[in-house]
Design brief:
213 residues, Rossmann fold, 9 helices, 5 strands
Length: 213
């Protein structure tokens, strides 16, 4: 069993980007038969929330956040197969992809790791994703669709995706983000929310679902 000191160490290891320590502690918890959902909720998710808050206030920058997310992912890789065999429920199911014509994935990948770190089940659709694939993701049960675009040339493709997805009536939410995207643009095309960065995307997803950020 992990002691309170070890849980604190897990929190610190994620914040510091110490993947080796994260993997070691989560492996110990798994091998001891601990409640990994509890470890995730009590130590790991709060750690990534702290990292997101530090990024938003300018205390850390993208490289540090990427390292922390990589460390978090090391723990999630151990936890996910175990939780998949239990009745542990994620906060919600979210899919994400770069819109058709956009091949950039660094920002998208960071959002994926942050969403997983916040307790969401995430389906990564990849890059250059056609409108129809986002629609199929909704049919598979995703409750939120996250669209990413980095280029001014692919930015208008979001309009096509939003219009296509609005044909569905299951209430799936649409969150958009990327270097060239603004809140004004999100409002203009009818998206449900806008995330200006990876932590902002997590908060935006939570807002659309009525989950406290």
């Amino acid at each position: 069993m992990l002691s309170e000191e070890e849980k604190d160490a897990l929190f610190d290891a994620i914040c510091d980007g110490d993947r080796e320590t994260v993997v070691a502690l989560v492996t110990k918890a798994r091998d001891a038969g601990e409640d990994l959902g509890g470890i995730l909720n009590d130590a790991m998710i709060p750690a990534m929330t702290e990292v997101g808050d530090q990024f938003s206030t300018g205390e850390i920058f993208v490289p540090e956040m990427l390292v922390a997310a990589h460390a978090m992912q090391g723990g999630i890789d151990i936890i996910e197969p175990v939780l998949a065999q239990t009745d542990h429920e994620p906060l919600a199911r979210v899919c994400i992809g770069s819109v058709k014509g956009d091949l950039h994935d660094i920002g998208k990948n960071l959002v994926v790791m942050m969403l997983k770190g916040a307790g969401f089940e995430v389906e990564d659709l990849g890059v250059d994703v056609p409108d129809e694939e986002f629609a199929r993701a909704i049919e598979r049960g995703n409750q939120v669709v996250c669209l990413s675009a980095l280029l001014t040339t692919t930015k208008p493709q979001m309009i096509s995706v939003v219009n296509h997805l609005r044909q569905f009536s299951n209430g799936a939410k649409i969150v958009i983000g990327g270097a060239v995207i603004t809140q004004d643009y999100a409002d203009r095309i009818g998206a449900d929310a806008f995330g200006k960065d990876a932590p902002g995307a997590v908060k935006a997803v939570k807002r659309t679902l009525g989950i406290a950020a």
